[in-house]
Specification:
Blueprint lengths: L1 H6 L6 E5 L5 H7 L4 E6 L2 H10 L4 E4 L12 E7 L8 H11 E11 L2 H4 L4 H4 L1 H10 L3 H10 L2 E9 L23 H5 L2 H6 L2 H17 L1 H7 L8 E8 L6
Parallel strand pairs: 1-2, 1-4, 2-3, 4-5
Antiparallel strand pairs: 5-7, 6-7
Length: about 240
């Protein structure tokens, strides 16, 4: 798991999954023997997380207000969540409060530039435009991290792989048929919360016809690029000299 590589966790450390949702990543990391706490604003999602990970500490909170002490965590992960945060600087500052000096903060997100090259734009342009408008650009993230006391130490583009198990927005890049499944769409926030019903209906019909005719292959090729589908950003809390 790439997030573990970037976090470089210590077995005895304590780590935070902020915006953990129903706990997919929290539970997977806990199963690797790591000590994780999940924080999520939605009580409904936390109820599901508690059922799935009974031994994990789940707390209700937001990125702007985390129910934890100062310098409580050795590191933090934020996977596909920062676009939901109302104020990046305030959120990053709150995370800086609860992370130990030198602690790592690993962000997994997508930039507007990357999302503009998803083939989903061909079938669901209005939905994608709304999704893109939510996403902070890399320069914005970088500036707000700096203002909160973090320094970016690494970035890495991520390209969706064929064996991907998760079902976030572009999970079907190489498996377009998954979008025809209503259960899958319900689990993707863009389809569930941002989509226009008529656009989804016509887009799915067009996608199905293109898959059947083989036309989809040529359409997908027009969206090939080297920008990456998502982006890992690794930041470290600066160690200040108080002498």
């Amino acid at each position: 798991m790439q997030v573990v590589y970037f976090l470089n966790p210590h077995p005895s450390g304590l780590y935070l999954d902020i915006g953990c949702g129903t706990g997919n990543y929290t539970i997977a990391l806990a199963n690797k023997g790591l000590n994780f706490v999940g924080v999520e604003p939605s009580e409904q999602m936390l109820m599901e997380a508690r059922k799935r990970g009974e031994t994990i500490l789940w707390l209700q909170g937001t990125a702007e207000q985390i129910p934890a002490d100062v310098s409580n965590f050795d590191g933090v992960i934020a996977t596909l969540t920062i676009h939901h945060w109302a104020n990046l600087l305030k959120s990053f500052s709150e995370l800086a409060r609860v992370i130990k000096p030198g602690g790592r903060f690993v962000i997994f997100t997508a930039t507007p530039h990357q999302m503009g090259h998803y083939w989903l734009n061909h079938y669901f342009p209005q939905m994608l435009q709304l999704s893109i408008s939510q996403m902070p650009a890399f320069e914005v993230i970088k500036n707000e991290l700096g203002g909160a006391g973090f320094e970016i130490s690494a970035t890495e583009k991520y390209f969706v792989q064929d064996d991907l198990q998760d079902t976030f927005l572009y999970a079907g890049k190489n498996k377009p048929q998954i979008y025809l499944d209503e259960a899958v769409r319900k689990g993707i926030s863009s389809f569930a919360a941002l989509a226009n019903a008529e656009e989804i209906r016509t887009g799915l019909l067009k996608l199905q016809l293109d898959l059947e005719s083989g036309k989809f292959t040529d359409i997908k090729k027009t969206y090939n690029n080297d920008f990456g589908d998502y982006l890992f950003i690794v930041a470290e809390k600066k160690i200040t000299d108080n002498k």
